Here is the input.
Amino acid sequence: MIDYSYKELEECLRGKVLVPTRRKRFKGTVSTDTRTIKPGEMFIALKGPNYDGHNHIDEAFEKGARICIAEQSCERSIKRRDPDIIFVEDTTRALGRLGAFHRRMKKTPVIASTGSCGKTTTKDLISHLLSSKHKVLKNMGTENNKIGVPKTLLQLDDHDVAVIEIGTGGIGEIRHLARMVDPDYAVLTMIGNAHLTGFRSIMGVKREKLSLLEALKESACFVYNSDDPNIVHPRLKTIKTIKVGMSKKCDVYAERIHLMNEGVAFLLNGKYKIISPLMGRHNVMNMMLSVAVAGKFGIQKNKVPELLKTFDPPKGRLRYQEHNGIHWIDDSYNSNPSSLDAAIELFKQYPPKSRKVLAIGDMLELGERANAFHREAGRSIANYSFDMVVTVGELGKKFKEEAEFCGFQKDKMLNFKDSDSAGKYLKKQLKAGDTVLLKGSRRMKMERIMHQCGVPG
Here is the structure.
């Protein structure tokens, strides 16, 4: 909910209401989609490669929009001549400016979460812990870009705290979004080989992720994975920090980690026994990061074990499910070399039930090193005694080729063009007691393998 005068909106958006209007103020919510717009809302006409909101301005007003933000260059193409249109140079930038302005006017404490892996889970964990005591706003799903972040900020109302995930699709985006969010606490989970298409190398990814530090205000606190050798920056010596890791020298640390059939257990700070439905050693780090932040908002460590026990892992993020005696580990939401390594390591240590079946799809957005990363993963696969490996996609063939070259049995490894084909095959092969790990980039839709096998949801 926002509540600003037209003069404030003009100044904030660097725009102008060209026709005089009786209205002097807008109070309401903001929409960028006429399919879901509600009466009384502000409509911001965004433009993208495959859409142009300016084509729907008439529809927005017909559905009850109070005011519209449009680009000056599109003025002549707008048939309607309603006075309540503020013309700006760029509506995407205007959305960002409005989100940043509203965040500063509300003065609500904000926590930002980013990293090559784990940023969404960590955001959800922080929100889960804080919700036990506070009213929390968080961005839904992965609305973590230049559209989703300001739209989330514009929902700030009477919340006690906001938890905002920040992603990146290119150089400078994290710095831009961090300045928009202006976090009081910033969390960096880890830096690894992800989204290399926009950054060419791990050094490019490192520079992008560490730009979060450079964008922080002096009073902010930086919470980070101190076990990650890539997280090194001069500002770590001058800004408030909370170190999280496996060493007892850290502010928050873990020991006695034990992987279980349906989660993980560990000892927090040498005192608190945690049993969580989250799977994998890497999720221990995500939980510790969330505990470190939650402590700054009054969540006592003795309350943490019960709270983490009730956390419901998001779909597609190492979520365990059993159906007809078959055990599924669904990590299908996304994949990159770092997260695939973590998933395979988890599967390697997973307590045996019967056969272990690995189903992996292409890792996308890896740029010119895509083939090399897939071959490297193939070598890792060859070192483990999986009973069957199913690969999906063109790059998935590289998994297969390299694993077989390194000695993996050819009759245990197959490649399919898509996840539906792989699912139809596995439906005939799987039997009660089998455990299946699903992993792949989002566009590979590896969860369809479960659907083909009759798993609900």
Summary: The CA atoms of residues 356 and 435 lie 5 Å apart.
